[in-house]
Amino acid sequence: MTVNRAPLRERPELLKMSHIEKTFRGDVVALKDMNLTVNQGDFISLLGPSGCGKSTALRLVAGLMRPTNGVIEWSGGQGEGDLGVVFQEPTLMPWAKVKDNVWLPYRLRGKSYFEVKDEVLQTLKLVGLERFQNAYPRELSGGMKMRVAIARAMVTKPRLILMDEPFAALDEISRHKLNNDLLALRDAVGCTVIFVTHSVFESVFLSDRIVVMAARPGRVIRELNVEAPYPRTEEFRTSADYAAFAREASDALHQAMEVAV
Ligand SMILES: Nc1ncnc2c1ncn2[C@@H]1O[C@H](COP(=O)(O)OP(=O)(O)OP(=O)(O)O)[C@@H](O)[C@H]1O
Fold this sequence. Notes:
The chain has eight helices and nine strands. The chain is of the alpha/beta class.
């Protein structure tokens, strides 16, 4: 599968969130009237202040909980293996080797390691960890553990990957490196991505759509398109275009923080 590189407005729809509301324990309105169409090939960042409902939106798309109101519809229906999820914590099995952690989604579908060994090793190679296939998670740095978690989410080539602040705990250099590797891996797998972040710079570097959310109640208040070609390199990171997109996203984020109820 290759990434759909059609211009943003010409991409076929993958899923749609319509009038989503999520209320917790009767009175915490985490999301209200959230609408978002995700198209094939999009790299969407959900950007917004703490508590605006980014993680809630992601968990609803993941099917980990149900909306109080509204619907999430996949075009043509959601199939088995259409979704991969990466959380802020890598959540690896500490007793299992790296290759066995990455094999997990296949194992859950009844595939033996030997049936999918090539896919597992190929994905580990793409995240630069082929040499560590027999290591245990405790032998890896935080960035390496996160690479394993990403490889695990992508090994089955899902149509959509959901990522909830996966790099928030990493230092700046590791984060840049992982941002580069994530884009390379996304190209290899060809998936659509929804990525939650607090970082304006990260959202501009990675995504072609930045969806800015405001809190109380959580909803989408602005959308920006980062119309810069992929692959994105260090040259992009230091370009005037990058700085201009970052300024625009930063202004939108400030606006999101100031929006009254
Ligand atoms: N399980 C829950 N029970 C009750 N309230 C919750 C629950 N999960 C989230 N909330 C509340 O819903 C709102 C949105 O939370 P959410 O974690 O989705 O925001 P967020 O934008 O991801 O925040 P952050 O950037 O800090 O992770 C917050 O007010 C939060 O306290």
